[in-house]
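TICKET #2291
ISSUE: user wants both folds in one file
ATTACHMENT 1:
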Amino acid sequence: MKTYKERTQSILQKAEVQKRKKRRITLISVLSSVAAVLLAFNLVLFVPYTVGDVDITKYSSSEYYDIIQQLYGLTYSPRKTNNFKEWFGDVFKAGSAPINWGLATARPGASVDMSAPSGNSYQETTLNQTDGVTEGDLFKRSDTHIFYLGYTLVNNAPSYNLRVYTVAGEDSQMIVNYKIAPDDETSFSSISQREMYLSEDLSTITVISSCYFENGGRSHTAVIKLDVSDLYHITETARTYISGKYVSSRIADDNLLVISDFTVRSNTDFDNVSAYVPQVGKKDSLKPLAANDIVCPKNADDPHYTVICSLNDKLDVNDSVALLSFSDDVYVSQNNLFATHTYDKKVKTGDNQKTEYTRDMTEIRIVPYKDGTFGDTRAVTAEGSVLNRYSLDEYNGVLRATTTVHFSSGLSNRCMLYCYDLDTLEIAAKVVNFAPAGESVMSARFDGDTAYVCTAKTYINITDPVFAFDLSDLNNITYKDTGTIPGYSLSLNSFADNTLLGIGYGNNSLVLKIELYKQTDNNIQSVAKYEEWGVIFSDEFKAHLIDAENGIIGLGILGQSSARYAMFRYDGYELVEIASTETTTRNVDYMRATVIDGYAYILDEKGFNVIKLA
């Protein structure tokens, strides 16, 4: 029998065990409660949920309501979010102070007479697509000076510099390096999207570039006017902005036409008109385009606008138009602008119309202009897609177009040539399936009554027929071709000695091919060819020097270890290399050259070189 002490000790031990059990139960209960609270907190903060639908009927009284309805279908999708993002997102947003670039006028480094000598005149350097329509480029020239729009990088962001050189053969030198800075709270956003013009009276330079607005985070196009009448004291006189990144521009009818690409973001805020309608004007007074200046096709499938703006000498806005879902590669004639919208069309075939496939179709929108203003737009439709602006041409009231028809069912591509009467918008003539099955239009060039078209297969072995169409009689279109030869041309141009110049690829994409063709009574023959293997060259047409008068071709060529600028002359029999100089840059897109009085002047974003030609 246990003593009193033993019984008491046993009771105390049992009590302690019970206390420990209770403490464990309490701790587990507390931890469970805390876990439940944390789980609930996590569910409240971090579990994703879908934002509800947007009721756009509240915008029914807006002039842009029809546009909002189309954009809603193209840009809006239910958005995943959570309460942490919604409640605390602004606290964790990264911010950066805008860069103040400053604006400095560089003085010439040598004592040079900067006044324009008598008889000095403007000389066009760019091979324009249409007579009477001038294109922007990285360089322009007069008889006595060459202007190049270069760039420098500051904190990995570009600032532009206008470099001016004298035309004096081997004694040529840079006399001005004028820096062009972005506005406050903006930055130039792409060195590849910059061009300029020199006025015919040599008094002004107009610079056009993509830029980025820090406030609002949107791309715009900046148009900057510089007074260069006194090269010692270059001054900025005007600056205008257009929504969207810079695409291209023209001077036509004494007005500047600027083309930009404005994209509407997903889940856009329709309370903010600037988020979905392009704007133009001065930086602090941008105005949205009116609804009746916006063209929206019924089958719009891409939420971006091709914005076309007409500016006068003071960079005031004459007129503007925006085309929703159209290509930004616009062809400009002396009377009209042409933009394309390609879409898929379903086709049913078979005995019971149960087999279905799609083929591409293109709406070509015609925007007339006169005295700086745009008229009512019209449209024609073609089978297939239009490669680029060089595949379109207006001549004697007829729109000519080359297209490639693609099919979804595995059918082979086919190539088409269309001619439209611009008065009636009816098809005046067309040529169907003129190229071998499976080929696509790779380049085109119209020259009066002749259309040159290069088609190719680009699968394994590249093949290249070149066609020449006689369009002098639309009731009886005839054409000749080279037959199948290796490679294809990225561009075609009329050249010296009644030849056709093609610059492109040989039998693969690492072979540069420069080839000259000539028409005979029966076909088109290759009369001269230069090929170089294992190199890269620019597919930017403006980076190629094409001097048909002197039979000279020049372009930058990038090899594995070095880059050079090479020039060739056609002597009536073959292409002979007449100059080659290593460059300090490997960027062939920014190389430019011109030939003046037996000297080649070669420019790029880093330097300037002069070579005396033999």
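ATTACHMENT 2:
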Amino acid sequence: MKLTVPQKVKRKFIRDIYINREYSWLLFNKRVLDQAMDLTNPLLERCKFLSIFTSNLDEFYMVRVGSLYNESVSEPQATENKTRLTAAKQLDGIAEVTHKLYELRTACYASLRKELGKNGLRILRGEDLTPRQTEECRKIFLRHVLPLLSLMVLDAKHPLMQFENERSYMICQLEKEGRRMIGVIAVNPSLDRLYRLSGEKKVRLIPLEELIRLFGKYAFTGYTVNAQMLMRVTRNADFDTHIDDSDVERDFSEIMKKKVESRAKLNVVRLEVDDRESKLKDVVLKILGLDAKFCFCDERFFDYKFLFSLGGYLPPEESAALKYAPFKGAVSDELSLAPSLIDTVFRHDVFLSYPYDAMTPVVDLLEECSKDERVSSIMITIYRLAHHSRIAELLCRASENGKQVVVVIELCARFDEENNMYFASKLQEAGCTIIYGMENYKVHSKIISIVLKEGEDLKYITHLGTGNYNESTSKQYTDLNILTADKKIGEDAVAFFRNVSICNTDFTYERLLVAPETLKSGLIRYMDREIAKAKDGGEGYILAKMNSLTDKEIIDKFAEASAAGVKIELVIRGICCILPGVAGKTENIRVVSIVGRFLEHSRVYCFGRGEDRVTYISSADLMTRNTDKRVEIAAPVLDERIADRIVGILQTMLADNVKARKLCFDGEYRKVETLGEPLDAQDKFLREATKA
């Protein structure tokens, strides 16, 4: 499915070598939607991609559109630094592209629904029902749905109501004894999204939305319902996490709790309706004070989370045939059979590539450290934890066993604030020292520092990674991890935690590059090295992988390197604000995006080839928020064997001709031409891990 963006909108979002950040994100989410139509994916997995596309768009409106809304009010004349667009102009363009994306989503769902029906799973619409099915649905509504609906009539005594963020409502035009008013049905979020009809060999499901459309009028006994419309609002979730001096004596967790609670009451940035022609739409827009361009129509659903549950309605063997084959991350014999993981790391660095390698060795190492008498302290940064975190349990156990455990836990991790507040409390109860990040800098680093004492000597084991200490996402996100006993890295790690504890960013580390002080400047220094090599007639080369590229200083340095003759190969999953292929500026830059079964999440920065090659793995994307406004780490890969493997991973991704999409000079992402045998990089890594 092609996203047809008007040329005037595209010209607005692309300027010289720059692509607007928000437009690039919308193009990324279109690539997610493409996976819902990609026949190389099993049917139920394609359904999940449609749901992910929708969830992504919801978050985009809550966070990015919310942020632009705030800026349009507070600084209406301010422009972003690449395409020079004001917040208002960006919002206008976003709205135009979003309307196109809704059209594609509607077509995608219609196609998937048809294919699901062919595979024995029919999702019914009201107009599809037979008289017998209609009566069964009426009984389902009266018994299971109606008792859980909340009602309100808007009249002179109740002129307004607070529509909750991402909650569905039905708005009805009511009439009683010649008086007209508005009725509101608030749909209970705990209601099932799908109900199975009885007496059928094939699976027939009726969605909750269809039941409410058909029978919602029954809720207003004594009224005539002249019109009805399903709706949902999206509210701005971009609240300020800045802490000033007046907050010093207050508990930061209590401050964050109040800020999180405020989300439900922030301004509305989007309205979704199921009938674009309904006059009720205009009534709601007036109540909300929202511009009509931010009203979007989907005739069936506002969220598609129910698509994740479809496999449960089919027999296990039929469901399995419509999903990816199950996979469990590998653990090498050396690690699984090792008497001591501590001693293994002392012998040589250990490399793990999630999800192809399991997270088990890291968890097992923490368990061993919680009991080993040599271990004096364990320090860790936490950004997002699994809801049932084994790592949190082991940190508690280590503290209870007398180890010094320091946990830097980021309470400002968006949408994980409540989960992190819960674990902060549990860890503190177990005796761990809790540090709530650094003042006005999010701590996004992924590092564990383990200090061991053997006689008079201190030894170190350091874990450095690109992803969170989250057992659940380690099975879904691709991330790179190194366990090392290098002394200088170990000393850097201890210094890092010491500096975080005293809110000090002004420090130069021996091996680590740490934002906001040395990460960007360190990477630019290596880029300058490659530029100098190219200008001297040698070969300059940069190979990098990240989720997003938005930092203008970095983008301009890439352009400078390209103009000097440096070959630059970038694997960027999501936002990319540099336009490759611009003559004399970015013609030596190649950008590839891969969206597949696993979420590409690792960050790698590699400079040069051969003996002078330098490779870093990092927690940081090349975004201004990461390089200037967060505490991030880039760690050198000291083991050449591991560096070779990491570069090999990236080279395989660059050779992908199944899932890869190439960013072209006109700002379009196009499928890479298939030369020779098809190569799906993620599938290749899976097969290799399965053999291992």
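RESOLUTION: both attachments delivered.
EXTRA DETAIL ON ATTACHMENT 2: The chain has four domains: 1-124+314-324, 126-235+267-299, 333-508, 514-691.
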